[in-house]
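User: I'm writing a tutorial on reading structure tokens. Could you give me a worked example: one chain, its sequence, then its tokens, then a sentence or two explaining what the tokens reveal?
Assistant: Sure. Here is the example chain.
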Amino acid sequence: MLHVGHTDCSLGARCRRYTADWKFAAQSAAALAVSLIVSVLAGITLAAILGGPLQFDGFKNPVLSLVLSLVIGAAAGLSTADDAGRRYLIGVAAAAQSCVFPVWVGFALVLGFPDPGTTAARLLTLPLNVCPIGVAACVAYASIGLRRGSARAARRRG
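And here are its predicted structure tokens:
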């Protein structure tokens, strides 16, 4: 559940253009980095305790992961824009998309990496999961006209 906040971190780091808040973007990027580092460390710890081999084989291909991340990012952007969505569920969806890979890296650091093709595909899939979530959310923000101060202005009008 470490990655449930992952969606908000990804959105904050990438949507600075629409929030115009560099401090928030920096905090979000730092939180995302900490989340990924802790996940790698968790993988290292589990591999050291449990040994191998890693029996999880449910990795999706990179194209499917990219498409799922775009859908999750759009849903996250639309739900955070008016806070009407179920952000927790979207956070879980984002976590399911991306949390497997840093833990896998931790396991692989202890137990050894598979063949170079498999390793490259899995390492490429992590940014293919994380980056499109933020990009799609920014597109969603732009499509509904969300800008910095929009929520405060709407609250004053309402």
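What the tokens reveal: Residues 2-157 form one domain. Helices lie at 6-14, 16-19, 22-50, 62-82, 87-98, 100-111, 116-143, 150-157.
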